[in-house]
Design brief:
8 helices, single chain, Fic-like fold, mainly alpha, about 200 residues
Length: about 200
Amino acid sequence: MTDALFDAEDDAATPITPDERAQLIPTYITTRDELNEAEQQNIADADRWAFTRRRLVLDADFLKRLHKRMLGDVWRWAGQFRTTERNIGIEAYRIETELHALLDDVRFWIEHATFPADEIAVRFHHRLVAIHPFPNGNGRHARLAADLLVVQLGGERFRWGRGNLVAIDQLRRSYITALKAADAHDIGPLLAFARS
């Protein structure tokens, strides 16, 4: 495996450490496209798994299993909380505490109908991304978890910009912009993006 495999990471992507890079499972992967394809296939399998069974989305162990299902054929660290600092997310030592606080908050929102179902799921997604519990794949994981939650609450899956015919780079920029707006306490753009 050469470093060129990881050179394509953009500023918004979570960089992974050399030790984490060494935990790539498939030995045939030498390009970013091959890595993306392997991850996408693994995620598609996890999506089918997640939507064909009863699930407790608001459970930390389930969220870890979901991440492992999404990336476990590609990365040995899949499903394990990160232990190193990142360019985004909270300090690694706070992950479990903050994740449990998030899950408690979401249960409260549901029990007290604090927000509509879409907003509960999107706020869950935003906070999960902000915690950034895993070495990588956090956005994809949080989107699938939010999809599972909104369906559990009686809604339909989000589209996350799938209906947008603009180039993928523009789609990613729109997503990052919506996340930053949510960081500034404006959830509207992320809600709109989720349903776009």
